[in-house]
Write a structure and sequence with these properties.
With about 425 residues, this protein is an alpha/beta fold. The chain folds into 2 domains: about 20-140 and about 305-375, Periplasmic binding protein-like II (D-Maltodextrin-Binding Protein, domain 2); about 145-305 and about 385-420, 3-Layer(aba) Sandwich (D-Maltodextrin-Binding Protein, domain 2), CATH 3.40.190. The chain has 19 helices and 13 strands. The protein has helices at about 1-20, 35-50, 50-55, 65-75, 90-100, 105-110, 125-130, 160-170, 195-205, 220-235, 245-255, 270, 320-330, 335-340, 350, 355-360, 365-375, 385-400, 405-420, and strands at about 25-30, 55-60, 85-90, 130, 135, 140-150, 185, 260-265, 285-290, 295, 300, 305-310, 375. The strands form 3 sheets. Strands 1, 2, 3, 6, 7, 8, 9, 12 and 13 form a 9-stranded mixed beta sheet that branches. Strands 4-5 form a two-stranded antiparallel sheet. Mean pLDDT is about 90; it is low at about 5-10 and about 15-20.
């Protein structure tokens, strides 16, 4: 009996020692759908994989307001923690140029460090985390816009922006007193990271590009796109405070039955299909790809895409452990599916087409082909965030009807050109 007691005490001591000495790395992320999904992953890892791999993960959530500013300031400060940070693909080029994020390329190409299928990524997802041929993050969540519409009102979603205008007019009381909704459509209007990305979809579907021999933000396709926006606003097809609209405002307008359709990030789908969260419309909402433009070659769409991505702090003392975790969380069938089933949107084609995932989140049947065929990345240059901010300022003025599209685009293009000259891009 004493011998068994001694063995039991020794075993307990070993377990206790392991529990108190096993390293713990930190994952810093935004509150919201991504944060909730990461919590599910971390809980699974700590319960099932921590002992196997020799480390635990601690999750730290921060509010969404100014989140990326905090992440970038933390990376610039050079501290050792957090070990992993959720960031945004718009900063990939900046991270590559400044070495603010750890270069993952060699470990990613090593089968012992990354024992997962490299061909299973959405192509656009890996483009978004790559700069000059080097990989600075792994995509955890690849988002795009979808057209959310009331299927009880709209039998066939509009395929072109011109059709979208006409459908929106039909469901705006100002133009149709029998309309069951006050306004026909809503989209992003507040100066934010999402505003230009919404506008780019129209701009690029009209054939626009960011550059010719110099910036082309005032090109004919750009002007056509912005005139479409202006006409929708001037004709009252959107709520009058559209210049203040961001994610939550669009979500609320759909939930309350105020609008017939909206261009919104696909991440809104679980909330809109939740009977408790959206009792008025949960069974009336359907999704489709965003509209496009008819060309002689057929319908041309453009699907804005961005990654929520996991970067490793270059000053972390646990970089290999951090890579082991983010590789599992983003690319393993197990980790990526946990992420998807928790309500987020992984970048793995096999998970997005998984029958169990599709039965819970049928929007992926539109999202997967949309990104595969029409997905594109914003310009991957280190100074793009500042360029985007210039354009953002002038787009917001058009949304508020303070400037006409032609004047706004000319001023934006000139300021962007001057900015790039000052940065040495043009002589």
């Amino acid at each position: 009996m004493k011998r068994w007691l001694v063995v039991l005490l020794i075993s307990f001591s070993v377990v206790l020692m392991f529990a108190t000495t096993i390293p713990e790395i930190t994952l810093f992320c935004r509150a919201g759908p991504e944060g909730d999904a990461h919590k599910s992953q971390v809980e699974y890892w700590n319960s099932n994989l921590a002992e196997k791999y020799g480390f635990k993960v601690k999750i730290i959530e921060a509010t969404r307001a100014d989140y990326y500013t905090y992440v970038n300031n933390t990376l610039l400060a050079g501290g050792k923690t957090p070990d992993i940070m959720e960031s945004f693909s718009g900063f990939t080029a900046l991270y590559g140029k400044s070495k603010m994020a750890f270069d993952l390329t060699d470990w990613y190409c090593d089968d012992t460090m990354f024992p997962y299928d490299r061909s299973d990524w959405l192509d656009i997802s890996m483009k978004l985390v790559t700069y000059n041929g080097r990989i600075y993050a792994l995509p955890t969540d690849t988002n795009t816009y979808l057209l959310f519409y009331r299927k009880d009102l709209i039998s066939e979603p509009p395929k072109t922006w011109e059709e979208a205008y006409e459908v929106a007019k039909q469901f705006t009381k100002k133009h149709n007193k029998n309309s069951p909704t006050m306004y026909g459509i809503a989209f992003y209007g507040r100066k934010s990271e999402s505003l230009p990305m919404f506008y780019y979809q129209i701009f690029r579907s009209y054939g626009g590009t960011w550059w010719y021999d110099r910036p082309a933000f005032d090109s004919e396709p750009a002007l056509k796109a912005l005139k479409w926006v202006e006409s929708v606003i001037k004709d009252g097809l959107v709520p009058p405070d559209i210049s203040t609209y961001e994610y939550m405002e669009i979500l609320g307008a759909l939930q309350t039955g105020q609008i017939a359709m909206a261009v919104q990030w696909d991440a809104a789908y679980p909330t809109l299909k939740d009977k408790n969260a959206s009792p008025l419309v949960w069974d009336k909402i359907a999704v489709a790809m965003v509209p496009g433009v008819e060309t002689p070659e057929g319908l041309r769409r453009a699907q804005s895409a961005h990654d929520q991505m996991l970067v490793i702090n270059p000053n972390s003392e646990f970089k290999k452990e951090a890579f082991t975790f983010i590789a599992w969380a983003t690319a393993s069938p197990e980790g990526a599916k946990i992420y998807a089933m928790a309500g987020a949107s992984p970048a793995r084609k096999s998970v997005l087409s998984d029958p169990e995932v599709l039965s819970k989140f049928p929007r992926f049947q539109f999202k997967l082909p949309a990104l595969d065929q029409w997905g594109y990345a914003e310009p991957q240059i280190p100074d793009y965030p500042e360029m985007k901010d210039i354009l953002n300022t002038y787009l917001a003025k058009v949304w508020a009807l303070e400037l006409d599209p032609e004047t706004a685009l000319k001023r934006a293009n000139n300021e962007i050109y001057d900015f790039l000259v000052a940065k040495g891009y043009y002589k």
